[in-house]
Structure formats: structure tokens, C-alpha cells
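Supplementary Note 3. Input sequence used for the single-chain structure prediction.
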Amino acid sequence: MKYIVSLLLVGFLLTSFSFYDYSKESQNFVYTCSNLNLNCFYKIPCSDFFRDCNQNKGKVMKVTLERAKALGKEECSCSTE
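The predicted structure, written as C-alpha cells, is reproduced below.
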């Protein structure tokens, strides 16, 4: 009886690892502003981006690259500070 219980426990542990969603690791996240007039997204947020977003009454959002493109945003780079 103990042998069967331990086999079931080991089987459960081995199968539970297969339920992990590996697709989340491959998603690329970017930063964009909720204001529709600002059409940029950034891979790395910078102070100019935060200032522009706040001045235009927007909120900084961390979204997937696919979502940013679906919103009509284009990649921009931060100016060197």
C-alpha cells in the first residue's frame, strides 16, 4: 500500500511540472503611455518618457510588445542623459 501511494505521489510531482506556462518567459515587455497622443513605446523607460507621459495626463503601462503594436505605438529610443 505504501508503495502505491509513493508511486502516485512521484507521478503527480512529475506531471505537475508540465503545467508550467513557458510562453510567458518568451514575451517581450515594453513601456508605453496610456495617452493616445503619445505614439511611442520604450524597451527601457527613461525620465523624459515619464515626464512627457505625466505632463500629458497619461499613465505609464508595462505591456507586451504585441499589445503596444496593436495600440498603434512605435518604438522610440531615450535621449542620452
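The mean pLDDT is 82. Helices lie at 2-16, 47-55, 65-70.
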